[in-house]
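Treating backbone geometry as a discrete language has practical consequences that deserve illustration. Part of our work consisted of pairing the sequence of a single chain with a tokenised description of its backbone. What the numbers capture is local backbone geometry rather than side-chain detail. For completeness, the protein is quoted in full, as a sequence line and a line of structure tokens:
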Amino acid sequence: MKKSCLYLVGAGPGDPEMITLKAIRALEQADAILYDALANVDLLNYAKPGCHLEFVGKRFGCHYLSQQEINDRIVELGYLHKRVVRLKGGDPFVFGRAQEEIEAAESVGMNIEIIPGISSALAVAATNRIPLTCRGINESFWVTTGTKANGEISEDIQWAARSSATVVILMAMSKLETIMDLFCQNGKQDTPVAIIQNGTRPDEKKVFGTVKDIVFRCEAATISNPAIILIGEVVALHPEKIKQLIENQYITT
């Protein structure tokens, strides 16, 4: 193999302007780009003429290629091109299975460069004016996936449900009711919750509620994947949630 390089590039949360200058330079210089379903396709406009562009899917319920097939494509393109970009939604190292792709590339002698991206776990909360930490309310936040590789609920969610931390759950809409039941079992039924679909994009949708009623509210608002779940007292700081609380208080009084 001629000395080629795999660039693992974070595409950010969805808004094409939320990408780093270093990531843009990597896209401009790429000979081949493998991109995910969660990466905004507008970013492909940075590719130079003649660059090989290939969709490889990867989102809940949409696996255009398996992870092994993606690994194989990275290796195959590494034999053909000097610069191969793997464009991933969010940040490559936040539930991006980047390590598996690194190992595949290194097994055939490819160099590796990591270009971090803004994770949706941070950006979607921030753009919705939900601070993940706030003095006097909480001191930490958790970012966890909804399920393990075998489809079972992650034990980390059970620990998170006992904490006072803000909890950000990715890829968990299919387990929403089960997760809310876990929080209810830990006395969190009145804890504020926000669910935000397509965060930072023009078609963003969001719904607010509490642990005990968010499943009903989510169904009524037809919220689906891709979405993030935010659980914690800081959610109450969102202007829409504050308005909802005032209205509820007015109705009950």
Notes: The helical segments are 21-29, 67-80, 98-106, 120-127, 155-160, 176-185, 214-220, 239-252. The mean pLDDT is 92. The first strand starts at residue 5 and ends at 10.
